[in-house]
Specification:
The structure is a homodimer. By secondary structure, chain A is an alpha/beta fold. In chain A, 44% of the residues lie in helices and 15% in strands. Chain A is elongated.
Chain lengths: 270, 270
């Protein structure tokens, strides 16, 4: 199998995103190797040996996706046994022309604490942790958004993603069976923040499967119970005109970006 | 100010990473606008009006970073008022030549539930949530890594990042003052999993500042207390030969990727 290397003198997160997006267009399997913080000539020479070995072992020239700023290190990696792809270089000259300024590359420019929004993202993570699963209603005034839905409909991972990646202060609140003795009504604690509410729902069969992995053969996990809870919840969303999304076929990345698009909440990430 | 648009028929996460990495090389400020899920001709035409308006309002041609697969939608966005950058197109032809196969673009190929490791990442998030802050020692056999350190040294955000982005089952355990009545010793619950331990530390002044925001003028937040706890903790790391990192000048992205590089833990993310 051919190996794809993702190399950077920083985290290599951008090199991975770049290489992975490209390779995902091809109906091939690759062996993925990420090597961050290649900051010295010595380290670069070691990496080149690793690339050379991968070439010898597999008989296929490795692909090397990199975003290295240090000129010496870049030169060494570019002249190795792999096929080198540096997407920054290709676009910098055209952008310089358009912007009328020269690029001023600085190391650790992305994904570092020097990002303007770094502190905001960490505060949002702390907020999401402190306001997970309805534990802390008193902070809802501070929330940017409050995700609501039944147990295991995707609230917690989505809350964490919105906080970590986009700096959105996200709380989440679970509807439980106890809320549904009669018809599910919007709890007063939530009604006060109705404009911040966003609902999640999920197909009953998938919810049944997810809950069964957690508590097999329980009432909680039964298909009938899942159907009842979801029906009550979706009725509530429609009755109260709360925007909602069915998470069944979507990843947390997709759910999160759809929520931002629908609510108009602004990313805090640059 | 010039506007940078990040547009995709999927989440636009790749378009953002690509555009943001490029723009971060320039000593300029930009207005950032992300528009995901542009899947129809009608939506594309609306977006073009928005781009046109941004051009008229600012007098500066917007930059449009996109990764659109639908040919019609791509054509519309590419022919709009902005300057169009599609990094996929530039690299696909050379890669086809190297790989000897044609690209087979499919929509929602990255950041979707179709990623092979999606379920693993969600399980890791659930694990990190259930094993935050030393609440659940009985699961440590299942952990890939156990982060240790004093309160507010960065354990929780790092745990969540490792789980969410890389599918690493991460637990974390806090050392508290109670552990340090005499000399801080490695708790027995941790010693059994010593090869999984990774330490965090932080400069005392920053810790003092972070804790003061939480509980001003408390003993917990005092510089003296922070210095004592950190000294005990670092002594423990050295004595027990536990690898550790000082998080003071690093983002959670940098801490997480450094931990992976140092431990050799494999990303589960493709």
């Amino acid at each position: 199998m051919r190996t794809a290397f993702y190399i950077s003198d920083s985290t290599a997160i951008t090199a991975e995103a770049f290489g992975n997006a490209l390779l995902s267009l091809f109906p091939e399997e690759f062996n993925h190797v990420t090597i961050p913080f290649v900051e010295t000539v010595k380290k670069a020479q070691q990496i080149n040996k690793q690339i050379e070995k991968s070439f010898q072992d597999s008989g296929m020239r490795p692909l090397v996706f990199h975003t290295i700023l240090n000129a010496q290190v870049k030169e060494i990696i570019s002249s190795g046994a792999g096929i080198s792809y540096n997407f920054l270089d290709q676009f910098v000259a055209p952008l310089e022309k358009v912007l009328g300024v020269r690029a001023k590359p600085e190391k650790h420019r992305t994904h570092s604490i020097h990002e303007q929004t770094y502190a905001i993202r960490i505060q949002a993570v702390n907020f999401a942790m402190a306001n997970d699963d309805g534990v802390n209603l008193k902070n809802y005034g501070e929330a940017d958004i409050i995700l609501i839905g039944v147990s295991r409909s995707g609230k917690t991972p989505t809350s964490l993603y919105l906080a970590l990646q986009y700096g959105i202060k996200t709380a989440n609140y679970p509807f439980t069976e106890d809320d549904m003795v009669d018809v599910l009504k919007l709890p007063n604690a939530l009604r006060a923040y109705k404009e911040k509410l966003f609902g999640l729902t999920i197909d009953a069969k998938l919810l049944h499967q997810i809950r069964s992995e957690r508590r097999a053969n329980s009432r909680y996990a039964s298909l009938k119970q899942c159907q009842m809870e979801l029906k009550e919840t979706e009725n509530l969303y429609r009755r109260e005109k709360i925007p909602f999304i069915n998470s069944t076929r979507f990843s947390i990345e997709e759910i999160s970006t759809k929520i931002l698009a629908e609510t108009g909440l602004q990313r805090r990430k640059y």
